[in-house]
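Listing S7. Sequence submitted for prediction.
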Amino acid sequence: MNVPFAAQNCCAAVRSFFHHLRVTQPGQSMRVWAVIIATSYVMTACNTASVPNSTASPQVAATRWTALLTGKLVKIDGCLRVIADTPSGLGTSYLLVWPPEQHRVAIENDTIRIIDLWEGGEKEVVWRIGQTVRLGGGEVTSSENLDERVRQNLPANCPGPYWIVGDVDD
């Protein structure tokens, strides 16, 4: 029996199959069983996953590092750093590294203005040298472990360890 099957419309395919079998009375057990089996095949075929379009571009998910650093904001030899006061990094002086796609930073004397680009450029934070700051991010001990674009923006003569800045608090 050749039953037309439209994969896009499972209900129509099931109705068409019932119509071709001419099942009108429940006593026709052979046809009823055939209908049940055929329905399970049709429903299985209708529930198969669609094949992704091979021409679609892959989705890129951007993420931020989320470890917490709290400490005193300092400028040492022209390098903007945070001296950690958290137990995991107590006393460590981290050079702040600003991923360009996440932050725009302006340093004027002892004032640092940070615009968070992930917040639509609407979140602006102002820090001052000497204050205690809180920021999200993560530690990188060697510049070799930094993305090439970030490495090119590192200030000269500013050694690590590095703190890749994620989120900033006021």
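Caption to Listing S7: primary sequence and predicted structure tokens for the chain studied. The longest strand covers residues 67-76. The beta strands are 67-76, 79-84, 93-97, 103-108, 111-116, 123-128, 132-140, 162-168.
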